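Worked example

This section walks through a single chain of length 141. The input is the sequence exactly as stored; nothing has been trimmed or padded.
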Amino acid sequence: MNATTPIAPLTTDEAEALVSAARTAAEAAGVTVSVTVLDAGGHLLAFRRDDRAVLISGETSTRKAYTALQLDAPTADLVDLVKPDGPFHSLPTALDKPLLFIGGGVPIHRDGRLVGALGVGGGTPGQDHTFATAAREELTR
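Given that input, the structure is written out below as tokens.
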């Protein structure tokens, strides 16, 4: 497959399956979360906030998904890059974009190409990353 071969976009059904898988992982851990799925263009495909999830988790899940999409990397892998001594220290404030460098955002690839991103908010950064990764793995089965 080369860069000019068309790749099927992330579908609404796949986005809903990602939301469901992330919520299932979070429920198993006893954590209430918000889950956001964006397509490759950064457009919302699916969103769900559990009834008892903290309100800000809706915003954080969306920003985590957006950050993972824009940088094509899990947000958990980017945290050290924006610390005061990191190479991207000024990135969060240099751009007028909703970036959030906290674990819980993961890019979604199909045939090696970026097709979207998933963000989870509501647990600890480590929990959110685990839930997002579990959902992404479920999609690729």
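What to look for: The first helix runs from residue 12 to 28.
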